[in-house]
Write a structure and sequence with these properties.
Blueprint (H helix, E strand, L loop, with lengths): L1 E2 L8 E2 L26 E4 L2 E4 L9 E5 L7 H13 L4 E5 L17 H16 L3 E5 L20 H4 L4 H16 L1 E2 L4 E2 L6 E5 L6 H10 L4 H19 L2 H8 L26 H23 L1
Parallel strand pairs: 5-6, 6-7, 7-10
Antiparallel strand pairs: 1-2, 3-4, 8-9
Length: 296
């Protein structure tokens, strides 16, 4: 691997074919293949293998096209990572398995899916477990049944838009249950699969500014604003009670044209404090609801 950012930087060369005899070879730490201690479990804030052995991980990420590398490259990557002492890899699949030119992220490219399957099996042979990553980022478009071409803003709507959640469930269903020919069964039935990333970098409270400010997010801005106003009415019961609660913060006081019953209270961004506090509570509730749904 050679990484060269500009002419002012020296290239960093990381040779893949490092001898096992070097001081930086740590493959002796690997217990291969994956599953020698059973499946991964968690209890009391720690990871344990099925047989009770404590599990510890040193990991990295493969993605942005590297997860669909040719088979021989996948073998070399797995061997290199094993020599480096890595025993957990987050596989960032996202858009890279979409059929070229396909309108939907659920239109899979069989060859690329095959390469991810092969990489997973290659890692397993070396004693390296995998963590699959959810697909909210990427080219989210009307071809997926969304109301607008939100693109990478899919992360902002992933926890509350029903169609985006449906896409996510369909994506996971395929990734976890299709037959991996190199494992001989779906990855969901194999101990190599240690963890799933159900959501990543899409905290609604932080991402809400995209929904509020980006033109392409207009349909979702309206959806979230309606939910915000319903939530305020459920929480406070009436405009009068809301006005009284927010009156402690002069900047947050309701204006004459704001009424949650009419859906006219706008979503806040960073200020004022009372409004932002309540909006943060709503965002937290939405994300907790999302986690419960995905786990079910």
């Amino acid at each position: 691997l050679v990484q060269k950012w500009t002419d002012h930087w020296k290239p960093i060369e990381l040779p893949w074919d490092v001898s096992e005899a070097t001081a930086t070879a740590f493959s002796f730490l690997q217990e291969a293949p994956c599953g020698v201690h059973g499946i991964l479990t968690a209890r009391d804030g720690h990871f344990y293998w099925e047989d009770g052995t404590r599990a510890r991980f040193f990991g990295t990420t493969i993605g942005w096209g590297s997860e669909v590398a040719e088979h021989d490259v996948a073998d070399r990557m797995a061997a290199y990572l094993a020599r480096s002492g890595v025993n957990l890899v987050r596989i960032h699949i996202s858009d890279d398995c979409r059929r070229e030119g396909a309108p939907s992220r659920l239109d899979w490219d069989p060859e690329k899916v095959d390469r991810v399957d092969y990489l997973t099996a290659a890692l397993k042979r070396e004693g390296i477990y995998v963590m699959y990553y959810t697909p909210m980022s990427g080219r989210n478009t009307r071809g997926d049944g969304l109301e607008s071409n939100v693109g990478t803003h899919g992360k902002a709507i992933g926890t509350f838009d029903e169609r985006m959640k449906e896409i996510t469930r369909e994506w996971w269903r395929f990734i976890l249950t299709h037959e991996n020919p190199y494992l001989g069964h779906p990855v969901a039935d194999d101990p190599v699969l240690a963890m799933l990333v159900l959501t990543n970098e899409n905290e609604l409270f932080v991402r809400a500014h995209e929904i509020i400010t980006e033109d392409v997010m207009a349909p979702y801005r309206e959806q979230l604003r309606e939910r915000w106003n319903r939530w305020l009415l459920e929480r406070y019961g009436s405009r009068e009670a809301l006005a009284e609660a927010w009156a402690v913060d002069e900047a947050a006081a309701l204006t004459a044209d704001e009424d949650p019953a009419e859906g006219t209270v706008p979503m806040p961004q960073w200020r004022p404090e009372s409004r932002v506090r309540d909006f943060g509570i709503l965002c937290d509730e939405i994300q907790r609801e999302y986690y419960r749904e995905m786990r079910a």
